[in-house]
Design brief:
This protein is mainly beta and 523 residues long. It has 2 domains: 37-311, Glycosyl hydrolase domain, family 43 (Tachylectin-2, Chain A, 5 Propeller); 340-518, Jelly Rolls, CATH 2.60.120.200. It has helices at residues 2-24, 87-90, and strands spanning 26-28, 40-44, 47-51, 57-58, 60-66, 73-79, 106-110, 113-120, 125-131, 140-144, 152-155, 161-167, 169-175, 188-191, 202-214, 217-226, 232-238, 246-251, 257-263, 269-276, 282-292, 295-298, 307-311, 340-342, 350-351, 359-362, 377-380, 385-393, 402-408, 413-420, 423-432, 435-444, 448-456, 463-469, 476-483, 495-501, 509-518. The strands form 8 sheets. An 8-stranded antiparallel sheet has the order 4-24-27-36-29-30-31-32, with no helix packed on it. The protein has a 7-stranded antiparallel sheet with strand order 25-26-37-28-33-34-35, with no helix packed on it. It has a 4-stranded antiparallel sheet with strand order 2-3-5-6, with no helix packed on it. A hairpin with a 5-residue loop joins strand 16 (217-226) and strand 17. 45% of the residues are buried. InterPro entries: ConA-like_dom_sf, GH43_C2, Glyco_hydro_43, Glyco_hydro_beta-prop_sf, Glycosyl_Hydrlase_43. Keywords: Glycosidase, Hydrolase, Signal. Pfam families: GH43_C2, Glyco_hydro_43.
């Protein structure tokens, strides 16, 4: 009897182990625990491509690639700068473009050509980029002199090209076949009130349009947000692109919404969406899709599943974030794709070649605040926990200079070195009610200092801490734990940033020896 019970326990435990192993080898939601909002996705043969929003960061309009919908790598950027002669984009004359720049993109592949389009509230224009070679370019650029909000470009089977856009009242317009311009007198109201399936008490009107055609039917995806509710997926269906359209709520769970659908080579369907997740940003989810009576049914019993029948994630490193020792071979690019500048950079004021193995940031103007400083070099933070560590050499700083490591958002935090009246000090600064407040400072007598920033996004804790070290071994906390709230003015998850700016004298510079990232928190 005892042997039989033991045998049954072995079978039970074996089953549990197999179940745990199966769960560990499946993809989990969120599929990317980092800020990748407003995704638009295509599949070409067995390869998936995705575009996303990075707003005021440059280079911009990132293109990511995956073979399994889970493990993504940065492939390229569509543009280096959106436009060059704009004070807001350039951080000139006290102006900035936080939370704006370029917004949600539309990604298409048609007749061997890749198309990615975006719009800008800064310039009031829409930009359509195209290329035959998605890895190497070049990208042809077409500019439409209107800003078509959250638009979706659509190539119909009859050769016509359309654009759907708007919020609440959705509109449609026809484009020239080469997408060089809009056709005159083709603009129409497509759906008068696209939010209606979610009721009358709406906080955010339907937007984020993405249009698809499956087996002869048209499907239009939107997000809406009822008051007192959560972000909600709305789908409209029609037999003809101009309607009539029938709409319904497609997903109302966890606030996961805004995106579209994608199929796999073996015939499965998924919906790609994102979720607001506090300070780390807006993070991607996938939900399985089944088809019933001509409608895509999202989720499992109307819920977003924790696990997916897809390969497990291998993590963000080195696919979307990456450590950098700043050593460059002749064949290397100056900066890996993981780096983006806050706003348009001044390329004459940085280098990874003037001193081998170092990033040099130079000053050529004075700025009164960190958020107006040029040439802050950034990477995404990520969840559930992450760290960024750098080494700063400060012997060539001038009086009034401030350089170091940031957690960049509207409510930013900084740790770095300040020069005041010829003396050096390590300082920790926090943005409090739009003011930069020095929380703690420590006198510094050497020219090389180690800096670290840590983020905890686990269960939306959204906290950050800063540390310094004089030898890279013994770390000291500096300042206080800060909150990392997601704010609409910046509309982006927190970013690690390397910065250097002058407040009194220009011409100084600092050298960063490396930037290392990790996913553990110092105890």
């Amino acid at each position: 009897m005892k042997i039989r019970k033991a045998f049954l326990w072995i079978i039970l435990l074996s089953g549990l182990v197999k179940n745990v192993y199966a769960q560990q080898n499946k993809a989990q939601n969120p599929v990317v625990f980092a800020d990748v909002p407003d995704m638009s996705m295509i599949r070409v043969n067995d390869t998936y491509y995705m575009s996303s929003t990075t707003m005021h960061m440059n280079p911009g309009l990132p293109i990511m690639r995956s073979k399994d919908l889970i493990n993504w790598e940065l492939l390229t950027y569509v543009y280096q700068t959106l436009e060059d002669n704009n004070d807001r984009l350039n951080l000139n004359n006290g102006k900035n473009d936080y939370g704006r720049g370029s917004w949600a993109s539309s990604f298409r592949y048609h007749n061997g050509i890749y198309y990615v389009s975006t719009f800008s509230g800064t310039t009031g224009k829409t930009y359509i980029f195209s290329t035959k070679n998605i890895e190497k370019g070049p990208w042809k650029k077409v500019i439409l002199n209107d800003s078509y909000h959250d638009h979706s470009i659509f190539f119909d089977d009859d050769g016509k090209v359309y654009m759907v856009w708007g919020a609440g009242k959705l509109q449609i317009i026809e484009l020239e076949s080469d997408l060089s311009d809009v056709k005159k007198q083709t603009q129409k109201v497509l759906i008068e009130n696209a939010s209606a399936p979610a009721g009358n008490n709406i906080m955010l009107q339907s937007e984020g349009s993405q249009l698809f055609k499956v087996k002869g039917k048209y499907y239009l995806f939107n997000i809406t947000w009822p008051k007192g509710g959560m972000r909600t997926v709305i789908i409209h269906k029609a037999d003809h692109i101009l309607g009539p359209w029938e709409g319904k709520v497609a997903l109302h769970d966890l606030g996961v919404a805004q995106g579209g659908i994608i199929d796999t080579p073996d015939g499965r369907w998924f919906s790609y969406l994102f979720r607001d997740s506090g300070g780390v940003g807006r993070i991607p989810y996938l939900v399985p899709v089944q088809w019933e009576n001509g409608w895509p049914i999202l989720g499992e019993n109307g819920k977003v599943p924790d696990n997916l029948d897809l390969p497990a994630s291998k993590g963000l490193i080195p696919g979307m974030v990456q450590s950098d020792d700043f050593n460059r071979k002749k064949t290397d690019s100056d900066l890996p794709l993981m780096w983006q500048w806050s706003h348009n950079p001044d390329n004459s004021l940085w280098s990874v070649k003037e001193r081998k193995g170092y990033l040099r940031l130079k000053t050529a103007r004075t700025d009164s605040t960190f958020l107006q400083a040029k040439n802050t070099l950034t990477q995404r933070t990520f969840g559930p926990e992450c760290t960024g560590t750098t080494v700063l050499e400060v012997s060539k700083m001038k009086d009034g200079d401030f350089a170091g490591l940031s957690l960049l958002q509207k409510n930013y935090g900084l740790v770095g070195v300040k020069i005041e009246k010829g003396s050096k000090k390590i300082v920790m600064i926090e943005a409090v009610k739009d003011n930069s407040v020095e929380i703690e400072s420590v006198s510094l007598s050497q020219d090389r200092v180690y800096l670290k920033a840590e983020c905890n996004f686990k269960d939306k804790a959204d906290t950050g801490r800063f540390f310094y070290s004089l030898d890279g071994k013994k770390w000291m906390s500096i300042g206080s734990t800060i909150k990392l709230p997601y704010t609409i003015p910046h509309f982006m998850g927190y970013r690690f940033g390397l910065f250097n700016y002058a407040t009194k004298n220009v011409g100084g510079f600092v050298d960063f020896d490396y930037f290392y990232i990790g996913d553990t928190i110092t105890m």
